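Fold it.
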Amino acid sequence: MVELIINGKNYGVDMDPSANLLWVIREHLKLVGTKYGCGEGVCGACTILLDGEASRSCQLTLGDASGKSITTIEGIPQSHPIKEAWISEQVPQCGYCQPGQIMEAVALLSKNSRPSHDEIVQAMDDILCRCGTYPRILRAIKKAAGTGGSR
C-alpha cells in the first residue's frame, strides 16, 4: 500500500510502486485535470506540484510520490490569483495545456512573487501550448504577480 497526499487528502493506493504517477492520478484516483501530453516529460501538460516543486507526473512513479504532498490542478482554488488572472486575460483556447501552465505558474509565484518578464519566460518555457496563447499567459502571470503588462 502506497500512501499519497493529494490536494490535502490522504489516499492509500494498492498498486505497484513502479506504476506511473500520472496514470494513478488520472485513472485510479479519477483526478483528470492533470493531462497526458507526450509521456516523455517534454510538453508539461502533466505538471503537478510535488512538495511545492513543479514536476512532470508522467516521469514519476507512485513510489516517487509516496508520503510527499501532491497538488493537482483540482487543488488550486478558483480564487487563486493565477486562476483569476487566467480568466480575466482569456488565456485558454483549447485549454488542454492550461492545467500544466497554471501549475507551473503557481510554482513560480510561490518562489518568486514578483518575477521579471524574463524570469516568467524562463519558468514557462518548457510548457507547450499548441494554440500559441503565450502572450496571454505572460500577461496573466504578470497580472497575478501585480507587475502589470509591462516588460
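The chain is about 35% helix and 15% strand.
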